[in-house]
Amino acid sequence: MDAPYEIGGLVATLPDHVIICLPILYFCSETMRIRNTALLVFLTSVITACSTQPEVADEPDMAIVWVRDAAEYRAVSRQAYRAATLALPGMIADTSWSALPDQKGAHDLPPAVIFDIDETALTNPYFQQSFEPPFTDKKLNDWSTQHDATPVPGVTDFVTLASQSGVEVFFATNRPCVANDGTDNACPQKAVVIQDLIEAGLPATQSNVSLSGERENWGKEKKIRRDWIAEKYRVIMLFGDDLSDFIPCVRRRNVAPCSEEPATKTSREALLEQYDAYWGAGWYVLPNPMHGSWTSFK
Ligand SMILES: [Mg+2]
Predict the structure, then answer these.
(1) 119: CA distance to ligand 1 center in Å?
(2) DSSP string, 60-84
(3) How many Å lie between the centroid of ligand 1 and the Cα of residue 240?
(4) What is the pLDDT of residues 270-280, one digit of tens each?
């Protein structure tokens, strides 16, 4: 508890532990023939400020903590999958409906939904808090190999319902294919991704999972893979945590088939408005405050 102390007619409110320093300071001032009370108080304040600096602790990354611990994170995720569940029968029945704005004449095609994987179908806060920066895809691949994957809340129930309703389920991730030296496997990461999805209770196969670079023109821009699926299916829903899971050409460094013109904060906002009717009605966004293309536009 702080208490008032009178020093040379000057009343000051000082923390108790500062009082302990006063005799030492006074001795010093006598020795140095410094008798100015104001200067004494000043010196005390300086020492106090120095001695009471808290130790610098590692600040937790609150974005990771939120995804890892918050009931609100789980509620928002369930909310997205609940909205999709409620809309599913109508979007199956309405054969004029597609969640791809430029898909036309798909009335006779069977319905399908497309999921991104990380922070859409699988959630990885424990990887995010454990890896030593900088992030590399290899670190995520190694971690995924060694740990069981966790589904985003709500996804398994929704995928089960969609599958039972005759809807094909696709997973498109930008985890990349990187050949291992000494083997002829051009994409050893695909087995890890499939295993991750299966661990989380999701129906992953060689044919419904695609990675970046798995085929020659399958780059980071997912529109190419969405269009590939749309050749055989009426795509009725998209699920993702990143604007690029829904809309092409939204990155700071755009890649084919986009022009090299970089997206901007303004262009991304304009696209958000342009496709306003899709949010929560065919396009379902899962929360990811930890990483994403948005971080290039802070
Ligand atoms: Mg993702």
Answers:
(1) 5
(2) P-HHHHHHHH-HHHHHHHHHHHHHH
(3) 6
(4) 999 999 999 99
Q: Which residues contact 246 (CB under 8 A, 6 or more apart)?
A: 238, 240, 275, 278, 283, 285
The proportion of the chain whose per-residue pLDDT surpasses 90, expressed as a percent, equals: 74
Q: pLDDT tens digit string along 185-224?
A: 999 999 999 999 999 999 999 999 999 999 999 999 999 9
Q: Say how many Å lie between the CA of residue 245 and the centre of ligand 1.
A: 8
173 C-alpha to center of ligand 1: Å? 7
Rounded to whole angstroms, how far apart are CA atoms 148 and 195?
9
Give ranges for CATH 3.40.50.1000 in the chain: 62-297
DSSP characters over 74-137: HHHHHHHHHHHHHHHHHHHH-TT--SSTT--S-TTSPEEEEE--BTTTB--HHHHHHSPSSP-H
Distance 234 CA to ligand 1 centre (A): 22
Ligand 1 centroid from CA 219, angstroms: 15
Provide the CATH topology of domain 62-297. Rossmann fold (3.40.50)
The residues placing their C-beta within 5 Å of ligand 1, an ion, are 116, 118-119, 241
pLDDT at 13 > cutoff 80: no
Return the CA Rg of the chain: 29
Q: How far is the CA of 58 from the centre of ligand 1 (A)?
A: 27
Distance (angstroms) between ligand 1 centre and the Cα of 5 equals 61
